[in-house]
Write a structure and sequence with these properties.
mainly alpha; MetI-like fold; 2 domains; 17 helices; 0% strand
Length: 369
């Protein structure tokens, strides 16, 4: 076991390097960049993400004193830089680290990331780690509650569907689940806003943030109510497809076990249906469901919340990553990518170890020999 874990941990190093290298190369050929963003802001042509960043104003305040004549040829490699003093452009390049060649910048980035030093955001004047800490509460709230609610509803429903396979209950619930799975989460979120958040009908739920104004002054019980009041619509919108997937996974897993020989043997010995279901089938059928818990949580935590965070004005990691790409805020882009990739690799290892813990018959180490 220890040798298997050690090999998996060592394999994470080249995997992370490969992810960073490919992303770094793609960025080098991508149009635009932080220097171009600042230039566009100075010229008044920036209508993108940088125009919404408060830190960009520092460059704008310094710009008038940096304009000079005859610099068009020098600044030709930057679109829109004509008329700006080339010394100012060089200061911008040094500010963002682009005064060094690409291989040196990549090597420096890898060295810093190995020490979990992700630097500071280009435009927010705050460290990447601090930014991530500020956004974590939203993403953790969405990830934890979505995963728990999905498991608490989907597992009992999936078991019931497996027991009643082919019945009217199974047919109707399957139809509802398939329709729910086919509806995109962001469209369902918009529908919820129209119906219940003051769109066209009812104004029952809030449309912004995780808490109401003055939340810190509320009694403890009202804080809890207000917190879940804000989470209701985002969780409903995000949980639609996850709910359908987990329910069908549970049903199929139980159906597969119900048809096996040991179940017929248990029934022949006089065991009741509940004894057969929960005493014999449950542990084997729940293997894939329970072992997939870490992966389901990470999926909800990282990859399922971008559009939902945008629609419901929830300032979490998904929205942070998207805006960082849009604004060419490379320290935040690569820092979040590194953390997401590292956590994903660790969670995959935990999932494999969970399989082995639940069912000792599974031995990944023996399969590799």
């Amino acid at each position: 076991m220890s040798a298997y874990i050690a090999r998996r941990l060592l394999l994470m190093i080249p995997t992370l390097l490969g992810i960073l290298f490919v992303s770094f190369v793609v960025v080098q050929f991508a149009p635009g960049g932080p220097v171009e963003r600042v230039i566009a802001q100075l010229s008044g042509a920036d209508t993108g993400g940088t125009s919404r960043i408060s830190g960009g104003g520092d460059f704008a305040q310094r710009a008038p004193g940096q304009v000079g004549a005859g610099a068009d040829a020098v600044n030709s490699k930057y679109r829109g830089a004509q008329g700006l003093d080339p010394d100012f452009i060089k200061k911008l390049e040094k500010q963002f680290g682009f005064d060094k060649p690409a291989p040196e910048r990549f090597a420096l980035m890898v060295w810093n990331f190995a020490r979990f030093d992700f630097g500071k955001s280009y435009f927010r004047d705050v460290s990447v780690i601090q930014l991530i800490k500020e956004k974590l509460p939203v993403s953790i709230s969405l990830g934890i509650w979505l995963t728990l609610i999905t498991y608490l509803i989907s597992i009992p429903l999936g078991i019931r569907k497996a027991v009643k396979d082919g019945s009217r209950f199974d047919t109707w619930t399957s139809g509802i689940i398939i329709v729910g799975y086919a509806i995109p989460g962001f469209l369902f979120a918009i529908l919820l806003i129209i119906l219940f958040a003051g769109g066209s009908f009812f104004n029952w739920f809030p449309l912004r943030g995780l808490t109401s104004d003055g939340w810190s002054q509320f009694p403890w019980y009202w804080k809890i109510i207000d917190y879940f009041w804000h989470l209701t619509l985002p969780l409903l919108a995000m949980g639609l497809s996850a709910f359908a997937t987990m329910t069908l996974l549970t049903k199929n897993s139980f159906l597969d076990e119900i048809r096996k020989q040991y179940v017929m043997t248990a029934r022949a010995k006089g065991c009741s249906e509940n004894q057969v279901l929960y005493g014999h089938i449950f542990r084997n059928a729940m293997l894939i469901v329970i072992a997939g818990f870490p992966g389901a949580f990470i999926h909800a935590f990282f990859s399922g919340s971008l559009l939902i965070e945008t629609i419901f004005s929830l300032d979490g990691l998904g929205l942070l990553s998207f805006e960082s790409v849009l604004n060419r805020d490379y320290p935040v882009v690569f820092g979040t990518l590194y953390i997401f990739s590292l956590v994903g690799l660790v969670v995959n290892l935990i999932s494999d170890l969970t399989y082995m813990w639940i069912d000792p018959r599974i031995d990944f180490e023996a399969r590799e020999v």
